[in-house]
């Protein structure tokens, strides 16, 4: 919906609930995983070249009138660094940073009609689709065409995701990763137990069998001192598990309008996750088993996305981490989806050309080492991934090979673009599985109706 100039945009009411538990948890998890790459940036910047060579069309000129661009971003440390470098390359442009405005604060600023000129958002737990659908962001197609900007510099799935809203380009991607298909493991625990580490030929049965062998004997309280496997349970990892078994949340898988939770593959996937906890007892039970984390060294294997690389570097002084991809499922499929972070331009900015320059700067090849240092994933461009590989930990190659040869599946976006609510629904609907209060059949039966009701909701602003 178009908004009058100077007026307060009509917001979809549930966006303001971005301070939900699931969103705060996701933000904290992402922030915590981004702290482990100390010293990596210098090596990677050397490998990629410290000087910016892309995204500087027009150059900087002191004869141009001064411009100040306000930039909404999350908490990444590289934003101030890259912003300073940008102003040095373009002396007439000052970047005013608005930190920690990736979620809740962003909504507050938007409600106050005080959004920055350039805005960071996420397609996973962020608000890219909701805001783009309300035309709060500018369509970048004319700017890209005038600049002769080659969108093929980015992974195809990243651009496809950016165009998910009415086929228009409302952002440039800053990073992409194939979601939660990484299987990270404690090399030391495998060695001490004299068990061979995971291989590409592993099946799901192999994973469960090895997790059983690596789970410690019960202590006096009846709980194991060490766990064989730890999985994540939010909306993105559940999409990966459902797809591994040939299932989906929605039909169609992207921009879906009908629930697919009543299909057999969905039940099969949820049964497998339930059994890990309550049948095989190789996975901690929510609300029962506490003080369990990969960093503590009491978990042998963990499923997560590429930020596990940062986590592995964090614990490198205590134990070694390696990674492989989750085994393929019974249909020979490996679940994945392309998660993308975005940078958009406020549709109301007076400085679209200058803002597009800033977008190119943060999404360039040279930005890759800065993104990798904090997230363990080097941007949204194949050349950035290639630049990183020689200096990255060996486990990075597993994900790069997947991106090069297979590529991630499409993002599971509901047709109404309500990604925040999709996560909130998942947390509530499936929590009884993780606590053991209900089994898969009960949970699915109870969730089909509410899930369809959610999918029947209109798009934001409609």
Describe the protein in words:
The protein is of the alpha/beta class and 462 residues long. The chain has two domains: 18-178 and 339-405, D-Maltodextrin-Binding Protein, domain 2 (3-Layer(aba) Sandwich); 182-336 and 416-455, Periplasmic binding protein-like II (D-Maltodextrin-Binding Protein, domain 2, 3-Layer(aba) Sandwich), CATH 3.40.190.10. It has 18 helices and eleven strands. The strands form three sheets. Strands 2-1-3-11-4 form a five-stranded mixed sheet, with helices on both faces. The protein has a four-stranded mixed sheet with strand order 6-9-5-10. A two-stranded antiparallel sheet has the order 7-8. Strand 1, helix 3 (78-89) and strand 2 (93-98) form a beta-alpha-beta unit. The protein starts with 20 loop residues before the first helix and ends in a 7-residue tail after the last helix.
């Amino acid at each position: 919906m178009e908004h009058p100039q100077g007026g307060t945009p009509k917001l979809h009411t549930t966006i303001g609930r971005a301070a939900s538990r699931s969103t705060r948890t996701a933000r904290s998890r992402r922030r915590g995983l981004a702290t482990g790459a100390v010293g990596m940036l210098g090596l990677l910047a050397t490998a990629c070249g410290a000087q910016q060579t892309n995204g500087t069309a027009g150059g900087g000129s002191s004869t141009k009138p001064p411009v100040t661009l306000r930039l909404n971003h999350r908490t990444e440390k590289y934003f101030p660094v890259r912003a300073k470098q940008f102003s040095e390359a373009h002396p007439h442009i000052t970047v005013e940073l608005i930190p920690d405005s990736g979620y809740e604060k962003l909504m507050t600023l938007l409600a106050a009609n005080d959004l920055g000129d350039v805005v960071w958002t996420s397609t996973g737990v962020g608000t890219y689709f909701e805001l783009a659908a309300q035309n709060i962001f500018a369509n970048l197609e004319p700017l890209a065409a005038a600049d002769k900007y080659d969108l093929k510099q980015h992974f195809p799935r990243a651009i496809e995701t950016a165009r998910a809203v009415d086929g228009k380009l409302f952002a440039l991607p800053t990073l992409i990763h194939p979601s939660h298909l990484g299987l990270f493991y404690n090399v030391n625990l495998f060695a001490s137990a004299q068990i061979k580490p995971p291989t590409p030929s592993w099946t799901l049965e192999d994973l469960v069998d090895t997790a059983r062998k690596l789970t410690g004997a019960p202590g006096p309280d009846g709980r194991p001192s060490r766990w064989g496997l730890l999985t994540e349970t939010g909306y993105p990892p559940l999409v990966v598990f459902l797809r591994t078994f040939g299932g989906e949340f929605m039909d169609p898988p992207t921009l879906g309008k009908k629930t697919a939770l009543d299909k057999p593959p969905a039940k099969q996937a949820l049964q497998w996750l339930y059994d890990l906890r309550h049948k095989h007892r190789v996975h901690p039970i929510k609300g029962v088993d506490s003080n369990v984390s990969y960093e503590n060294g009491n978990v042998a294997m963990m499923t997560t996305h590429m930020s596990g690389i940062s986590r592995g570097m964090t614990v490198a002084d205590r134990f070694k981490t390696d990674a492989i991809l989750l085994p393929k499922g019974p249909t020979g499929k490996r679940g994945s989806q392309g998660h993308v972070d975005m940078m958009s331009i406020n549709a109301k900015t007076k400085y679209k050309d200058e803002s597009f320059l800033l977008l190119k700067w943060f999404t360039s090849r040279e930005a890759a080492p800065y993104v990798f240092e904090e997230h363990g994933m080097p941007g949204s461009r194949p050349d950035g991934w290639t630049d990183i590989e020689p200096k990255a930990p060996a486990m990075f190659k597993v994900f790069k090979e997947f991106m090069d040869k297979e590529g991630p599946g499409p993002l599971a976006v509901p047709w109404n673009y309500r990604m925040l609510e999709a996560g909130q629904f998942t947390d509530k609907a499936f929590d009884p599985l993780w606590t053991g209060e209900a089994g898969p059949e009960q949970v699915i039966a109870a969730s089909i109706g509410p899930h369809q009701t959610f999918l029947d909701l209109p798009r934001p602003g409609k």
